[in-house]
């Protein structure tokens, strides 16, 4: 069984080395420049709304999801046990968080492709690195591993 990790962070070299796939969200409009949104995160509804109202947000999200629908089943065929998908932006607090949360919802939905040919549903973990650095609870399971009684992040 494969586990998929969705990681949001600032765009940096580390992501390109540690992740299997990296998407750059820096082209989307940045809530950092709106004074009332800057101190918040993509976990806050008003920040997520701001990000999702960018005209290119939905096409970007849909194309990432389509790419994962193509690639993740092939990872399983190749015997991979873990897949790390990183979404990066300038500070890792707003746009990447919003996209990771939306991807987690899509992949963990019953028809969202978080499974492969009867192999059960893949565990899907969410991790927001920059939020974790600020002491905000930043990881959780979007879908927990079925056979693990007390799962811990890897």
Which helices and strands appear, and what pairs or packs with what?
Blueprint (H helix, E strand, L loop, with lengths): L2 E8 L2 H6 L2 E4 L20 H8 L4 H21 L4 E8 L5 H14 L15 E5 H5 L5 E5 L11
Parallel strand pairs: 1-3, 1-4, 2-3
Antiparallel strand pairs: 4-5
Could you provide a short overview of the structure?
With 154 residues, this protein is of the alpha/beta class. It is built from 5 helices and 5 strands, in the order E-H-E-H-H-E-H-E-H-E.
Describe this structure in words.
The protein is 35% helix and 19% strand. With 154 residues, it is α/β, with parallel strands linked by helices. It has a five-stranded mixed beta sheet. The longest helix is centred in the middle third of the chain and has 21 residues, at 57-77.
Question: Which percent band covers the strand fraction?
Answer: 15-25%
- Mean pLDDT, to the nearest integer, reads 85
Number of strands: 5
Shape: globular
Count of DSSP helices? 5
Oligomerization:
single chain
In the predicted model, the low-confidence regions spanning at least 5 consecutive residues are: 115-119
Q: Give, in order, the helices and strands.
A: EHEHHEHEHE
The biggest beta sheet reads: 5 strands, mixed
Radius of gyration: 15 Å
Strand order of the largest sheet: 2-3-1-4-5
Class from secondary-structure proportions: alpha/beta
Separation of the first and last Cα atoms: 15 Å
The helix fraction, in percent, is: 25-40%
